[in-house]
Amino acid sequence: MKYADQCKWYLNGFWNDGAQAEAENVWNFAQKVMSLDQLKANGNELDEFWSHKFLEGMGETKTVVQLREELRKIDLDANGKMALLEYLAFKYNKSVQQICDAPQGSNKEEMDEAQAKLQAVQDSFDEVQKQLEQQKVALENQKKAEDEQKRLLAAQKKAEEEAKKALESQRKAEEEAKKALENQKRAEADAKSALESQQAAEEVVKKAEAELKAAVDDLKSQEESYHNQITQLDAKSKDESASTVSRSKASNELAQLKGEDPLPLRKAKITQEAALRKVEKERKASEVATAAAASKVAAAKESTLAAEDKARSAAESTKNAERAAHAAAEAAQQAEEAAKSAEAMTQALEEKTRQVEAAVKETESKLNEAMEYLEAVKKKGGVAYGAIWWMERELKEKQKYLPKRKQQL
Fold first, then answer.
1. Which residue, 71, 125, 297, 342, could crosslink 191 as a Cys pair with Cβ 3.0–4.6 Å?
2. Is the pLDDT assigned to residue 202 strictly greater than 90?
3. Rounded distance, CA 294 to CA 191, Å?
């Protein structure tokens, strides 16, 4: 016999001889021994090692030798193993003959039918319990997943808004960079125009300087020619090797040349030299101004290049911001779809939970039918009360795992 059948045998046979009061203890013995047996509920006896473990669990604090001696007393068939019925006979001082002769009730067919009905209910309980546990875990996990999807959706929506704001800000920055570039190009153009004007002015001054220098050089040449003629005529007038006529002619020409007034020539030279110095000064100032204008043009060109780089960088940043905004929008759309999918999944699991609850009601109906039949059997004679109590106890154990509003025993 399996452990449960051994217990039923004992409870049936001695129900009115103390077993009714010990029924719950017998139930606990069965749970303990089934927890130790590798075969669990399908087992029927424990070997010596696990028998010792069982006895220790029952509070038998004895030595190994004492426990072995105790086991010899319990092991009625002397096979070195302990059946639960052997332990019950030992604990409650029942002989082998008493155990064998223990009455089991005369309504076997009805008990078998009751057992079949209750087994069906137990099977339903097992299935409902399994489904309820699965649904509970699945629904809890799905709700967590749904909450997580909602959290991700909110975060992604926020990221999308931030990306839109960043794009708007970047577009403004790009527009400002474009305006700055336009202003800088105008400034560069103004600098170039100023340089061209300054260069033209410098050319005028240089041209005037060249003309004055040519005039001064011409005056110097005239003055030098005048002095050379005087020197030559003076030499001829004193040359004794020359004829008198030649010396006389030279003296007359010398006198005539010296008689000319050289003041206008000298005054013109002085005036032209002064004018030349002034123009030279203006030319130097003009060169300085031209250099400054050229420097401004170079600086303006550098600023323009920098503004162009900034404008290009701003344009690239705008493109990046547009891509980021687009990606954020797509991610938000995906998150929204995922959230809807999670919500639909939650609803599906809730519907399945309702279906399981409907199965619970069906199980309740089967339970009521089985209990009514069991009550009818209990009212007849020759009842195996121990087996009936065991059936009810199994149902009570199964019902622990149902929702509290479903528990009836």
1. 297
2. no
3. 8
